[in-house]
Amino acid sequence: MRFTVAVIASLIAGYTLGKIGVKAGELYELALYLLIFIIGLDIGLHGRWAEMKKSLSVKSLLLPLATLIGSLIGGVIGGIILNIPLKWAIPVVAGVGWYSLTGPILAQYSAFYGIIGFLANFLREVFTVILYPFFANTFGKEPSISIGGATTMDSTLPIIVKFGGKEITMIAFIHGFILSLLVPVIVPFLASIAAGG
């Protein structure tokens, strides 16, 4: 109940600041840094660093690779179901949630698929916020990190920590970090192939 009230109060405060004319983009970035700082502070205060390092394993380091492969397979399946050419469906999902990068990269080659890339990856982030608590309880906290894709190092990290526990903070952060390193290489490469073929 307290969490719901806090979310609603935050939404109202954000709406009010927006009406006053405060630029959302600047506050959004500042809020993300603040959230990550608070999580780091909590880890430091409660001496969880050693516990978190223990939670890192080869298996957890393979999670980003599994996420990327699963996303690409999902793109193939989604492309077939939605009758989207696979040459475009694959670069759309290769953004693994990084909509602000995927959309503009794809838009350089196709405005239509730029919009699709933006929306698909934006919705991945939104659905992570909504569905992670359910997925964590149903499929496990660590495997469910994969639904967040590249967003798990920033925007969805607070939700993952809240509902998955502080012990998976480092796994989620590294997951998002590795994917964030791969996306700027993979998406332009796949988009150039799609545009050329």
Q: Roughly how much helix do the residues carry, as a percent range?
A: over 70%
Number of structural units classed as domains: 2
By DSSP (H or I, 4+ residues per run), the number of helices equals 9
* Strand count: 0
The average pLDDT score comes to 86
Could you spell the SSE succession in H and E letters?
A: HHHHHHHHH
The CA-CA distance between the termini, in Å, is 53 Å
Instruction: Provide the gyration radius in Å.
Output: 18 Å
Helix and strand composition category? mainly alpha
Strand proportion: under 5%
Apparent shape: globular
Strand count, sense and barrel status of the largest sheet are: none
Low-pLDDT ranges: none
Q: In brief, what are we looking at here?
A:
It comes from Thermococcus chitonophagus. The protein is mainly alpha-helical.
Walkthrough of the structure:
The structure is a single chain. With 197 residues, this protein is an all-alpha fold. It folds into 2 domains: 47 residues; 146 residues, no CATH class. The protein contains 9 helices and no strands. Helix 4 packs parallel to helix 9, helix 5 runs antiparallel to helix 9 and helix 6 runs antiparallel to helix 7. The relative contact order is 0.13. The mean pLDDT is 86. This is Surface protein. GO terms for molecular function: L-lysine efflux transmembrane transporter activity. Keywords: Membrane, Transmembrane, Transmembrane helix.
